[in-house]
Amino acid sequence: MVRETNTRQRQLREQIAQLAARLVAEDGLDDWGLAKRKAARALGLTDSRCLPTNTEMEAALLEYQRIFDEDGQRAQLHWLRSQALDLMEVFERFDPHLVGPVLSGAIGKYPTIHLHLFTDDEKAIELFLLNEVIPYDPSQQRVSIAGVARTVPSFELNIEGSDVQLLQFTGADRRQPVRLTADGRVLERAGRASLEAKLDAAASLEARWSDR
Fold it and tell me: Class assignment of domain 71-211?
């Protein structure tokens, strides 16, 4: 009975994840929690145990893109990662690292480029934005750093039509695992060299397919 219940819950999570992935990809919902709840309601499911994890959601979104829009997704992802690389050059003094959907590839219709910046001067990033005349909206983001909940400065920008979020951390935070409190997963980070390697690998793969 327990095995049957677990199997049923897994199947329901898969159904919710698949529908939620479609909502993210087609309707532009960037709040995965909202997309999962909306998908569950559409399927007539109310048991919170049936809601998929963000890991399951990410897998469903990548699978959706592979089946329905592989070429379009690949082109958009390349453009976004190239934009992220340009931004990392702009903010080079803050040791920028890319995180989130643009890094994982699980992008929605209106993806945001998420960068983590590191400095021990709490005013440095805001002063940099002001000096470079880069418009921004300041806010705060709740995160968990090495298991401790904290609020860190957040700066929201729009660069060449793309939404960008900068989160400000201290230099010591660079060596610590960071989780979004609404998610719970440790965020994968990629520095400039890692992102360049991803872009080079994608270009090599594209070239091999073009030669066939």
Answer: alpha beta
